[in-house]
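# step 3/5: fold
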Amino acid sequence: MQAYQEILPEIKALGASMAAVSPQKPEYSLSMAQKHDLGFEVLSDAGNRVARQYGLVFSLIEPLRDVYIKKFGVDLQDYNGDASYELPMPGTFIIAPEGIIRLAFVDPDYTLRLEPAEIIKTLQEMAPKP
C-alpha cells in the first residue's frame, strides 16, 4: 500500500481516486490507514461480501491460523469480526467512470501486486486527450 500511496498525487492529477477495501472491522481499517499515513480511504468489507461477489475469497487452512496469531500477531477472528478465517485475494482494479473495469490484477500470492507504473500508464491511456 505504501507504493500506491507514493503515486497518489499522480493518480489524483489524472483525475482518479483510490480506495482500499479490507475485511477488517472499521476500527482496524482506520488504524491501518493512520499507521501507514495513507491519503486514501480504507473501506471495510464485513464478511468479505464484496470480495465474494468477485470470487476473490479463500479460506485460511487450519495450520496457517496459528501462524497468523503467533508469527504476525493477528487474530483474524478479532480483526475481521467473524470466525470464518476467510481472506480476500489482493487485487487492484481500475474502474472507468461509466463502471467498466479497465484493468484488473489479482494474484493469490499476496506478495505480488500490480506495479504502480502500470496503474499510472492505464490512467494516462484513459485520460481525455486534448
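# step 4/5: annotate
The mean pLDDT is 91.
# step 5/5: archive (pending)
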